[in-house]
Amino acid sequence: MNTVNTRLSSIDALRGCTVAAMLLVNDPGLEAHVYAPLEHATWYGCTPTDLIFPFFLFIVGVSTALAFGPRLEQGAPQASLARTALKRALRIVLLGLAINVLAWLLMPDERLRIPGVLQRIGLCFAGTSLFAIYARPRIWWAAIATLLLGYWALLLASGSLEPWVNIVSRTDSAVFGHTVYQIDAATGRGHDPEGLLGTLPSLATSLLGLCAGQWLRKGQTRHLVVAGIVSALIAIAWSHWLPFSKNLWTPSFALWCAGLAMLAVWLFHFLVDQHRLLPLGRRFGVNAVAAYAGAEIMQILIPASGLQNRIESFLSTTSTSLQLDPRLFSLAYAIVFVAIWWVIVWAMDRRRIYIKL
Could you list the residue ranges that cross the membrane (predicted)? Predict the structure, then answer.
C-alpha cells in the first residue's frame, strides 16, 4: 500500500485558491454592484460563492487526516494530540471573536456578532480532530450519516425552512439574541449563516474531508472521483425534497459541496503532486488563517477610517463618467485587494514566515 506521509502541495494550493476566492467575494468595491456568481444565493440554491466556505471546511478535514494520521501511526500519545488540536481550535475561535469585537468597536453601525466564519472553522477543526484521533474510519462514516440524517429530521420536524421561522433561526435567536449576523425588523428574530445548529452539518462536511484525506494518504485517489460523483448525484436527487441552502447548510447542500470538493482535491492532486504543475495558490494556503484574518481586519479599518466612502465614490463616479457597468469596477477593486494580499503572503513565504495559531 502506498501511504502518503508528507505535506501535499496540492492541498496547500487548493486551500490557497479557496482563501483567495474568499477575499474576492468578501471585499467588493461596491456592495450594491456585484456580478451574480460572486454573490451568495438569497436563501435557496447554490452559486459559486456558496461553495467557497464548504470547500475550506472540507480541506480542514483533509489536512487533519494528513497531519494526525502519520503521528498516530508513529505512536504519538492520543491525549497530547487532542490537547494540541483543542488549543489550536480555541485560538481560532477567539481570533474570530476578537475580529467581531473590533468591528463592533470601530464601526458605528456594526452590531456585536458572536458567531462567525473563524468560530465555525475552530469548532469543526476541534470535532474533526477528535474523530481523527480517537475513532476509526467506520465511526467517521457513521457520524457523517447521523449528522446529516439527524439534521434533516430536525429541519423537517421544525415545520418550515423559510427565513426567520425555521429552527436554525429560532435557535440562533434563543442562544445569541441580537448578537447575530441578521435581525428581522418585523419580528426581532435573528439568523446567522454561521450559527449554532448549522455547525452540525458543517462538521459532517469536515468529516467527509477527513475521509478524503485518508484516501489520499493511502494512495486511493480513485475513491475521490467515485465518491465525489456519487455524493453530487445523491445531493441533486435529495435537493428535490430538501433544497440547497447555505444559510441552513442543508444536508443536500453539504453533500453537493463535498462531492465537488472531492473532485477538486483529486484534480489538484493529479496536476500538482503527480504532474508537478505550478501549485497556484500555495502561498495563500500556507498562511491561510493569517491572510483571511488580516483581510478581515483591513476591511474593518478601511470603513472605520472613512476611506471606504471615498473609494466607493471614486468607483461610482468613474463608472458613470466612462459609461461602464459599475460591477466591473467593483470586481476590479476586489481583484486589486486580493493582489495586495498575494504580495503580502508571497513576502511572508519568501522569508519563511508562517503564522500558525
Answer: 51-68, 89-107, 113-133, 140-161, 196-216, 223-241, 253-272, 284-308, 328-348
